[in-house]
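Quick bug: Chain length determinant protein output formatted oddly.
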Amino acid sequence: MTTGTTPQSSSSAPLLDLQALVVAVRRRRRLWCSAALLGLLLGVAVAVLLPPQPSAVTKVLVAHQEDQPNDPGTLIRTDVALLHTTRIAGAALKSLGSPEKPEDFMQDYGGIGLTNNLLQITATGDSDAEAVARAKALADAFVTDHVRRMQQAADAESKSLLDQRDRLQAELVQVNKAIGDGAPQSGPKAAANLESLFARRAELTSRIADFNQRAAEARVGAPRLTAGTQVVDAPHPVRHSLPKTAATNAAIGLVLGLVLGLAVAAVGTVVADRPVLRREIAANLGASVVAELPRRSPRLWRRRRIRAARERLIASLARTVRGSAEPVSLLELGCARSASVIALDLARALAAEGPVVVVDGLPGSQLAGRRRKPQDPTVVGCEQATALSPGERRLGVGSVAPGTAWTDLQYLGTRTVLVVRAGHGSAAWLHTVARQLADQRIGVIGVVLIDPDPRDRTDGTLWNGLHTALRGHGGLPARQNGGGTSHAVQAVGEGRHRTERPPLWAARVPDSDQEAR
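Here's what came back:
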C-alpha cells in the first residue's frame, strides 16, 4: 500500500501514471471488448459476403543463361516484372481471343518467385474454367516470350562472334598475300618481315578457330535454355475453404479491433484526465476516501458482504451526524441514485432518535417527487425547507455536478460527505469542487467512493486532508442555526480559529475480497 499523498510526493508525481492508465483502460473494457467483437463480426461478414474470386495457379521453371549458385533472386524478380508487362498480357489475351485491354488484364493476375528458377503465376476470373484458361495463356505467353528472348540473345551473340571471325579472316587473307609477295626477296630485313608475317598468320588462325568454337557454343546453348524453360505444374483452380477463411478473417478482425479499442481507450483516458484511483481522487478533492460501495447490483454470492458493508457505512455516517453540532449533507458527483439511497438509509437510521427530514437539493427533485412509502422519512424540496421547525434534524442531499448553484450548498449543510463516482469527474472539476466548497466554508468530512476499481490498492487517506480541504484553515468558524435554513457566522477574533476539528473516520467498505481497512 502506498502512503498518503503529501506535498513532496505530489511534486514528484510522474507526467503519465501508468498504473492509473492501466486501471482506467481496464474500466473501459466495454469499449475495447465491443471493438474487438465488432472486428470479429466484420471479419466473418467479409468472408461470407465477399468470398474470394475464382482463381487458378500454375508454376513455370525458368532457365537463365546467367544462372549462378549465389544469385540472390535478381533474375526471377526480373521475370516477375516482365510478367506484368503489356506485351505478355497482350499475347495472353490474343491467345484467349479476349477484347479486354492489357492494362485492365494486368490487374487480374500476379506472379511470385518461389525459388531462383521457379515462377508461380496466379490468375483470377469469373469462373474456375476462365481462371484456368487465363493462367494457361499467361504461362504459355511467358514461356514463348522467354524462349524468344533467349534465342534472340543467342543469335545476336553468335552473329557478333561470326562478324569478328570474318574480319579476322579478311585480315588473314591480306597476311597470306603479303607472305606470297615477300617470299622472293632476300636479306636480313626481308627475313625479319617474313617471320613477323608468319607469326601474325598463326595468331589470326588461332583466333578464327576460337571465334568459330564460341559461335558454335552460343548456338548450342540456346536450345538447352529453351528446353529448360517449361510449365512444370499445369494450371489448376485454387480451392477456398469458407470456414478457414472466416476463421482467419475473424482472428484478424478481432486483433485489429482489440488494438484499435485499446488505443482509443488509452487516448481517451489521457485526454479526459478522469481520476479513478483512490489516491488521485483524494488528492484532487483534498479529502480522504472513507468508504467504498459498488455502483451496480452485486452478484448473488457477494450480496451478503455488500449488504454488511453498506450497513457499516450507514452506522458510521449516523455516528458522525449525531456527533455534529452543524447540519450534514451528502453531495453527489455522477451517482445521484446511490447518494439518494444512502441518504434514505441514513435518515431511517436517525429516525429512531427523533424526526428527520431529508432536504432534496438534487436536480429535478428526484427524492421529493418520488412516491413515499410508510417507512420512508419525510422528504421535502429546497423551497419547503424554510417551513421546517428548528427541532427537526435535517439531512441535505445535493449535487456538485457542473451547473451547481454553489451558494445554495451551505443551506443543505455546513459539513458534507462527498459521494463521488470513480472516473466520472475530471481532475480539473474535482479541483473546482474542492475550491468552491472551501470558499463556501463547507467542511468535507470525507469521500464515499462509488464504483471503485476492485484491483485498486492505493491509499486514499490524506493525513493532512482537513488542512488541504479547507485551503489552509485550521477549522471551521462557529455557526449558529438561526431557525430554518438561515445560518450566520459568529464573529471571531482576528487570527483566532476554532481548535475543534471534524472527525476523520476511516471506515472503508471493500468492493472485492480485500479486508476493510
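Actually, after a second look the formatting is fine. Residues 168 and 207 are 8 Å apart (CA to CA). Closing.
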